[in-house]
TrEMBL record:
Higher taxonomy: Bacteria, Pseudomonadati, Pseudomonadota, Gammaproteobacteria, Lysobacterales
Origin species: Lysobacter brunescens
Domain N-acetyltransferase: 3-169
Protein name stated in the entry: GNAT family N-acetyltransferase
Pfam families assigned to the protein according to its UniProt record, in alphabetical order: Acetyltransf_1
Length: 204
């Protein structure tokens, strides 16, 4: 059956938390309080559903968000306007089945109308065999991301490759519509949460 990407629902937060904390070393854990904060404030918080089962989620925030992640701050210190993918998690049994690609296609279709850049990071030194190409870097490279730097996260000691992708449609949208996009259903933002300062905690 097809993959359905849609906004998260409040009653699904426990399932989202379980998915996140079972994802392994490439995803930082978080607790109920931090998940609740994302639910209330994240610009983009969507889940993937397949065969009626929740199989993944993605959280994203705009560059104006008060996000405390050191990786988000790294981008903020270097770029004025971007859409940041804080995390994407796919259930282990569904990896390789197209869920991640469906999420990135959905996030890009949202971001390219509103932001000139799409940003994310990939943790390095977590592969089982360091001699082989990193599958996460290969995945992101296939979507057009390029590495723009690296940093060691001060709160975790993990090294991350900082990735960016140009949103090629954004200049035309900006020059044609400014900030007033047409009022049509497919352009409606996935969430209407207003950003506010994020309490201190471990970010992604």
């Amino acid at each position: 059956m097809s993959i359905v990407i849609r906004d998260v629902r409040e009653h699904e937060l426990d399932s989202v938390l379980a998915l996140n904390n079972a994802a392994g070393p490439t995803i930082l854990p978080f607790d109920q309080a931090r998940l609740r904060y994302f639910f209330e404030t994240a610009e983009y918080f969507r889940v993937a559903e397949r065969d009626g089962t929740l199989v993944g989620f993605m959280i994203g925030v705009g560059s104006q968000a008060g996000h405390d992640s050191s990786n988000f701050r790294w981008f903020s210190e270097r770029y004025d306007r971007f859409f940041y993918i804080d995390r994407i998690v796919v259930a282990s049994r569904r990896r390789g089945g197209g869920v991640g690609r469906a999420f990135y296609a959905d996030a890009q279709s949202y971001a390219e109308l509103r932001y000139p850049l799409l940003a994310c990071e990939v943790f390095l030194d977590t592969a089982n065999d360091p001699s082989l190409p990193d599958p996460a870097l290969l995945f992101h490279g296939s979507f057009g991301f390029r590495e723009v730097g690296q940093q060691v996260m001060p709160e975790t000691g993990l090294r991350a490759a900082m990735l960016m992708k140009d949103m090629c449609s954004y200049p035309w949208v900006r020059d044609t519509y400014g900030t007033q996009l047409p009022d049509v259903p497919w352009l409606a933002p996935p969430r209407a949460a207003a950003p506010r300062a994020l309490a201190t905690g471990t970010g992604a």
